[in-house]
Amino acid sequence: MKYLSTLCVLSIFLVSCSCLKKDANSEFYGTWELIEKSGGFAGTKTNENLDEKIIINSKKIIVYKKEQKITEAPFGIEKSKVIESSEFQDVLKTENITKKSIKIVDNKLILTDQCYDCYVYVYKKTK
After folding, report:
1. pLDDT reported for residue 50
2. Residue 124 CB partners (closer than 8 Å, separation 6+)
3. Predicted confidence (pLDDT) at residue 29 exceeds the cutoff of 90
4. Which distant-in-sequence residues (6+ apart) come within 8 Å of 26 by Cβ?
5. DSSP states along 89-100
6. Is 121 exposed, middle or buried (0-12, 13-18, 19+ CB in 10 A)?
């Protein structure tokens, strides 16, 4: 009988632990507002007239410009080689958005186009 009750407690513990498993991408989830854009051939940097936001959740990423939805797509994040580092880093993969590295630094989401003379986008979390 003692064996059966121990087995039941252990089973309940294992089930509850599996329910608490954190989604590996959840740190990226939320609504993010573009606050800075830099790059391009001239290496320009701007933080004006950037009326763009993205929403990332467990199923999709949605991009808005001037409150108009531009794209919506399922996404994944995988480790891959990137142009800004010799280390493998997280890369955003979707059908509708070009390949970008993705990371969070100082509570800001940073997306970097994976091409030379392309852009780096910095977002702050709004929700």
Report:
1. 86
2. 32, 33, 35, 107, 108, 109
3. yes
4. 58
5. EEEEEESSS--E
6. buried
Give the three-class secondary structure for 5. Answer: helix
pTM of the model: 0.77
Task: Compute CA distances 114 → 59, 82, 120, whole Å.
Answer: 23, 7, 9
* Residue whose token pair is 């800075």: 36
Instruction: Report residue 94's pLDDT band, with 50, 70 and 90 as the boundaries.
Output: confident
Asked if residues 119 and 38 have their Cβ atoms less than 8 Å apart, the reply is: yes
Among 61, 63, 55, 93, residue whose Cα is nearest residue 76: 93
Do the Cβ atoms of 120 and 38 come closer than 8 Å? Answer: yes
